[in-house]
Amino acid sequence: MKHMNSEVKEERTSTKKRIDLFLVPIVLIAAFLNLFKIWTDEYANAYYTAAVKSMLQSFHNFFYASFDPGGYVTIDKPPVVFWIQTISAKIFGFHGWSVILPQALAGIGSVLLLYVLIKRTFGVWAGRFAALAMALTPIVPAVSRTNNIDSMLVFTLLLATWMLFRAVRTVKFGWVLAAFAMIGVAFNMKMLQAYMVLPAFYVFYVVATKITWKKKIAFLTTATALMLAVSVSWAVVVDSTSADKRPYMGSSQTNSVLELAFGYNGINRLTGNTSVTGSSHKQPAQTEQQTASSETKQNSNSSADSSQSSNQRKSSFSQKMQAPGGGNQNGMFNTGNPGPFRLFQKGLSDQISWLLPFVIFSIVGLFAGVKFKGPYTAKQKESLFWLAWLLPVAVFFSIAGFFHQYYLIMLAPPIAAFAGAGAVALWSMYKQHNDWKSWLLPGGILTTAALQVYIMSPYVSSIGVAPIAGVGALGVILALVLAIRKQRKNSLTNYLGAAAMVVLLAMPAYWAMTPIIYGGNSMLPSAGPDSSSGMGGPPSTATNSKQSGFNGMQPPGSSSGNSSSNNQMQPPSGSSNGGQMPGGSSNNGQMQLPSGSSNSGQMQMPGGSSNNSQMPNSFSSKSSSSKRKSGGMNAEVNQKLLNYLTKNNTGEKYLFATTDSTSAAPYIIKTGKPVMAMGGFSGSDPILTVSKLKAMIKKGEVKYFYLSGMGKGGQSDVITWIKENSKEIPSSKWQSTSSSAQQGPSGNGTLYEITLK
Question: I need a surface site. Which of 226, 264, 269, 423 has the fewest CB within 10 A?
Answer without folding.
Answer: 226
